[in-house]
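tool=predict chain=A
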Amino acid sequence: MLGGRDRAESVLAKIRVALAAGVDWVQIREKDLNARTLFALAREAVRAAAEISGSASVIVNDRFDVALAAGAAGVHLGGESISAPDVVSWCSAGNAPADFKVGVSCHSLEHARDAERAGASYVFFGPIFDTPSKRPFGPPQGISRLAEVCQAAKIPVIAIGGINEDSGADCLRSGAAGIAAIRMIQDATDPGKLANAIERLRHIK
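tool=predict ok
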């Protein structure tokens, strides 16, 4: 098992590969890192995004203090995070840049609507397909439920959970604004193939 600093360096290396492959967003979800190490990782990720992509955004899970200090584009809130209304209200009071994003993980249409009413910038919805890391959040939602949420929501819906290139295309055709293909990127061994896959997905209509 990697220590905090080694883990951060490993994650940063993956981030660089993902940025070079053409991802639009990088989400840092490293709950086991202490604040100092997480801040250093987020700051380096922001720098890498500027150097490699020029347009990719970095989002930090849970820690909006770290996200702001590191110059990240936003914060993503899970079930155990501070509530979306509180974070949006705090940001709206002039404590964050005007374009600072607040995202929320959702597992139902009702939850997605709550996030929208709270002022969230976007929602993650899933799990769409079966994946070990998302099993604690319930059974797979499926494409039909994803399409229902995408149609009902006025803010972008990002599909997450068991997504690869093929299933990601189905999600985008169902109305998702984007996909969080975690394993597809983390397990990639050929940067060229990953870049080609992302480019194909980018042109799904």
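Residues 78-205 form a domain with the TIM Barrel fold (CATH 3.20.20.70). The two ends are 41 Å apart (CA to CA).
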